[in-house]
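Discussion board: Methods & Data

I've been asked by a reviewer to show the raw model output for two of the constructs in my manuscript, not just the figures. I'm not sure how much to include, so I'm pasting the format here to get opinions. Each protein appears as its amino acid sequence followed by a line of discrete structure tokens. Is this the kind of thing reviewers expect to see in a supplement, or should I convert it first? Here is construct A:
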Amino acid sequence: MSKKTRKKSSKTPSRKASKTSAKKVATGAGRAAAKTSAKKTVSKPATASHKAPSKKLKVNAPQKPPLAPSKGPRAATAKPTPENPSVKSPPGSNLPAAPAKAALLSEGAKAPAFQLPRDGGNSVTLADYLGKKLVIFFYPRADTPGCTKEAIDFTRLSGAFADSQTAVLGVSADPLKAQEAFRDKHQLSIPLVSDEKHEMLQSYGVWGEKSMYGKTFLGILRTTVLIDGRGRIARIWRNVKVDGHADEVLAAAQAL
């Protein structure tokens, strides 16, 4: 074997071996780098922008009561007028104002007109008594002690009133059935008028604030009015005391 052939054969395996070794090293290094990269990728914590939302326990907060539906603008406050001088609405209230006290009648003023039902089913008006004197006694409630005595006294003197050309009417807010039961129980001969809507009572100024046993309420103020033949107020009795009252009214009617 020649020297060239020996050199050739000795160099060739060495180069191939070095190339193979380099490839293995490169391949191993690549695999190690890949593993290291994979580990880093797995173990690398998520950044703030990719953090999963933490689960928090929800605490049921007390719910606020629902707001009441708006009822529109507040009702306008009624303004005083000559007919209703004392109308007032409660502050901050949407409720309508309480009925105002009617203006008090004065002697010499024209008597307010009316048309109301009476016991027996008929009706009476102020015009029915034009040209005659008329006594109207307003009583709080049928068949109560004071009202019963007053009605019996006017019935007792009904003949004397008729002789003086004076008619007599009893008026309250009781319904007709109560008035008729009151009439029958005490054998009353004077007409009993029912004003359940309080229209006449207010126009004559006899519906107002009262108090009893520490309680305040609206009701009839015991009052008697004497009207002359021209339809004008001749005399007014307010805060009537029942004893002797009918006799006093008769004397005034006879003197008129």
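Construct B, same format:
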Amino acid sequence: MKRFLASFSYFFHPIVIPILALSLYFLLTKDFFNGLEIMITLSQVLIMTFLLPITLYYFLRSMRLLKSSIMIDSAKERVVPILIYILLLIILKDYVLQHNRTYEFNIYIWGSIYSYVLLLLSIYAKKKFSVHVASLTGCITFFTLLSIKYYMPNTIILNTLVIALGFTASSRLYLKAHRSSEIVYGFLVGLLPQLAFWYIAFYKM
């Protein structure tokens, strides 16, 4: 049981979520993009949100600035990785994807940036909200809103994501990485920025 639950913490690690969100985005909008655009955008997001963070993590480990595993359970050690990830997301949105046509995905990135800012502030408030739950909740919210916008509901994928969120949250509790209140706050931190930026982008224009 421990291995089964722990696997969700790795499969749905926060650095995996942006590429998952983008894949879901292209699943719904692939008719609006050509194959080359999709491949280039996927590669850009993979590099900025997955490969670079992993490289920087091992660099920080080699410099002895991090002692935790890739889960970074220590609240104090989360500060630098979160700051770096916020910077990478800003670079991705404002420079790498600046002339890209993936408008809705850029809204998702904005929401993710603010989620990570809230997660960073929570550390200074001596809290340790779940980054796993926040990032996966943001992805699910984005996919749900996107499905509504394009009138393309996919209940199978949505239900699968919700089940994955449940197992991921249970994994963090089972491994004693978080308390139940930190899971709930992580959920809200992932949900609210996505709703706010979606509303600003499409309903308050």
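Answer (T.O., handling editor elsewhere):
This is acceptable in a supplement if you add a one-line summary per construct. For B, something like: The chain is about 75% helix and 0% strand.
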